[in-house]
Design brief:
By secondary structure, this protein is of the alpha/beta class. The protein is built from 13 helices and 16 strands.
């Protein structure tokens, strides 16, 4: 299934405004959560978005792009506005569509699923002559998710967990309407003693494709056409609803920002059917069962407050490369850091420990600890923050994820955000990834005054309360993250050193 997601407005067009909010920000946040959720949970889904950041795009560009791509379904996300008393949820299909049309059937299902979770008044299913649901060739629905002009609805919109619920409602409806197959949950294999053991890790990658065809010949023609423009590509097959499709792959990236940049270059070259798919890439290492992972004894000290970078090449299957600076990948350096001067050890920097090493360390104390290492590695790399040190901070805050303080495990709050003393339990987050994301965003706020990168929505509820850039080092968090906390940063770094030297 090919889903075209259209977050309303953007860039020069803020959309409706009210109660300190812009429609364009809320629609983008919900749409990104829809994309991430449906790609994570369901098989054979491709998603293309009209925008993934705060950019301007005309209505004609949105509908034309969806038509050229051959989308199976067009979903526009909007927020309503009227007088302050108006509130609730409603959705629209084109007023020229019959009540027995495919669009009407899909609307019935999505409306019911969204209303189960969105905590809004039901304003019903409607029809209208909106451009994006009129000019698209596929079934199309426009949803209006509350009134930004109403205090009750606007308060919900400010809550990231509510945005996720609304996104989940849309995903549930799409999955039901289009018969999507949920991805199988993989069971963790039992550990056995063998001469060799294999460890696998996965990371999120972003692959740029230029066309998806039922005919292999058409895909081959596209590869040849791209080659004439000095764009290397290759053909990748996939199954969609039981049929084989041939996708033309240009390149794979480890960050969405670089993939989006490449996508814009491809579109500028005249290819409007290019798109990005978020995928999981696995890396497997094999070692002797009796041998511990080896580490170099040479050590370095990192003192710069800027994110460490290395020059890397991201290569597609045909050998095309894009050379650029990128954050140093986890465990890429042979040297492990020595914290000679805790006062100079920065929040920004590379992540050295693998997700497996982080998880194994905490499970020695708490076997029931959640496996969060992958989130700290991936999100740490995205923000340029030392993800493994942030993991040590979470260990310190949660007592090895045993939550012996006022914060409950169900809050997914691994860094005590908002737990300001007494019985105040602090913030709650929708899932584990969101809890880690909030922690990394809070660290970013302390480490720099630069704008927060926009691939992920802001979920840290106290981001704007931070004195931006006031704590570029871990020990500078003393008296800020924890009060009085005169040795807060040192305690985190002591834990980190234990993690580094743990066998």
């Amino acid at each position: 299934m090919k889903l075209y997601l259209d977050p309303g407005h953007g860039g020069d067009d803020p959309g409706a405004q009210g109660n300190g909010l812009d429609e364009k920000d809320i629609t983008l946040a919900i749409a990104l959560k829809i994309r991430n959720t449906i790609l994570k949970d369901y098989e054979n889904v491709e998603v293309k978005m009209s925008r993934t950041s705060d950019t301007t795009k005309s209505l004609a560009q949105r509908s034309s792009e969806a038509n050229a791509w051959g989308a199976d379904f067009f979903l526009a996300i909007h927020i309503n506005s009227a007088d302050s008393s108006a509130q609730g949820y409603e959705d629209f299909i084109y007023n020229g569509a019959s009540n027995s049309s495919r669009a009407a059937t899909v609307q019935d299902i999505i409306h019911a699923e969204v209303m189960k979770v969105n905590q809004l008044k039901d304003r019903g299913q409607k029809k209208a002559n909106f451009h994006v649901i009129r000019e698209t060739n596929m079934p199309a629905i426009l949803t209006e998710n509350g009134f930004i002009s109403n205090k009750h609805d606007a308060q919900l919109m400010k809550d990231s967990s509510w945005q996720q619920k609304v996104a989940q409602g849309h995903v549930n409806g799409i999955a039901k309407a289009f018969g999507l197959k949920r991805k199988a949950t993989k069971e963790t294999p039992k550990t056995t003693t063998t001469p060799k053991t294999t460890q696998s890790s996965s990371t999120t990658v972003y692959t740029v494709y230029v066309g998806s065809y039922k005919s292999k010949g058409n895909a081959q023609d596209r590869v040849a056409e791209l080659k004439k423009k000095n764009i290397n590509s290759s053909i990748v097959t996939t199954k969609i609803s039981g049929a084989t499709w041939y996708r033309v792959k240009v390149a794979t990236y480890t960050t969405n920002a670089n993939a989006e940049k490449r996508l814009k270059e491809i579109e500028k070259a005249g290819y409007k059917d290019a798109f990005i798919i978020i995928e999981k890439a696995s890396a497997t290492t094999t070692k002797s069962a009796t041998q511990k992972p080896t580490t170099s004894t040479s050590k370095t000290t990192t003192t710069t407050a800027k994110p460490a970078t290395t020059t890397s090449k991201e290569t597609d299957l045909k050998g095309g490369t894009n050379t650029k600076p990128s954050p140093a990948p986890a465990n890429s350096a042979k040297e492990l850091p020595i914290i000679a001067d805790p006062g100079q050890f920065t929040i920004f920097g590379p992540t050295f420990l693998t997700p497996e090493q982080m998880n194994q360390f905490v499970k020695k104390v708490n076997p029931n600890a959640p496996e969060l290492g992958q989130f700290y590695q991936t999100l740490g790399k995205y923000y340029g923050i030392r993800g493994d040190v942030a993991f040590a901070q979470a260990i310190h805050e949660t007592d090895y994820f045993r939550f012996t303080g006022v914060v409950n495990p169900e809050q997914n709050n691994y860094s005590g955000i908002g737990a300001t003393g007494g019985d105040t339990r602090g913030a709650s987050f929708e899932n584990q990834e969101e809890g880690v994301l909030a922690q990394l965003q809070h660290l970013y706020a302390y480490a720099t005054a630069k704008p927060l990168p926009d691939q992920y929505p802001l979920v840290d509820p106290r981001f704007h309360l931070v004195d931006r850039g006031s704590a570029p080092t871990w020990t500078a968090l003393n008296g800020k993250w924890a009060v009085p906390g005169t040795t807060y940063g040192q305690a985190i770094l002591n834990l980190y050193e234990k993690m580094i030297h743990s066998g």
